[in-house]
Amino acid sequence: MPVEERALWLDPEGSPMLGIVTQPAPGAPATGTAVLIVVGGAQYRVGSHRQFVRLARALAASGHLALRFDLPSMGDSPGEPVAFEHGSRHIGAAVNAAAALQGVKRVVLWGLCDGASASLIYAASTADPRLAGLALLNPWVRSEASLARTQLRHYYRQRLREPDFWRKLLQGAVGRQALRDLMANLRGMRRPALPPLGFQDHMAAGWQAFRRPILLLLSERDLTAQEFVEYASTHPRWHQWDQHPGLTRHLLTSADHTCSSPASMLESETVLISWLKRLS
∠ at Cα 202 (146, 104), nearest 5°? Predict the structure, then answer.
């Protein structure tokens, strides 16, 4: 299906942010759903290996409108950097712009890594009734304790079973350093993950309060994804997170953090588009 793209400025009276709208061409079928792509990490609207460009065009080819944008100081947006946990006002400005576009009936937030975290924080802080769903790819919950716990479960447990690890340990510094790292992780697990009301707690509040559909995409080969599951499964504020009534959970087979392989990218797009059909 043909698509068209155009630029627009979001929040011109506050912190101007450049956005790109990708939508079905005039006359093509449209669903009325706008997907707001919330970037993660130190990225701009294109994304690693053009991930966000490809995603936006795949969405538009399926009848959805997509809006991706540069946060202040990123890409073509001026201003000072904004930490993801303080990005709700900027996400709100993008939601306002998306909701005002012709033909838009509902808005969905799609976020990667701390973009997914920021989306949950926005849901917690605003209870925005215009949100029809959240699509979250490998949400970020990093803390010293959560990283230590995840590394022990998903890395060191496997390493301790490998003869190569014990050979290196007996041969010298490389093995001894690995053993020191293991002990450091054991110590890190005993420390408090974060003081009360850290960003993970605001994420949990958004998760628990959001009563509409959530699509959780987890990459099989991503430590961040494994860390999210480990954290949410052990932290009391995430109690029964996997029993959320609107949750659809999908494991992206062999995918890395940004779904960099063509197969992983296609799988993530296909699952998202199928999920969006149920929101119409």
Answer: 120
Q: Which two tokens stand for residue 86?
A: 């303080």
Write down the domain spans for the chain.
3-142+196-277, 145-189
The domain defined by 3-142+196-277 folds into: Rossmann fold (3.40.50)
Q: Per-residue pLDDT for the chain (280 aa), expressed as one digit of tens each?
A: 789 999 999 987 788 999 999 999 999 999 999 999 999 878 899 999 999 999 999 999 999 999 999 999 999 999 999 999 999 999 999 999 999 999 999 999 999 999 999 999 999 999 999 999 999 999 999 866 645 555 555 455 565 566 765 566 566 655 556 556 655 555 555 545 445 579 999 999 999 999 999 999 999 999 999 999 999 999 999 999 999 999 999 999 999 999 999 999 999 999 999 999 999 7
Q: Is residue 119 within 8 Å of 132, Cβ to Cβ?
A: no
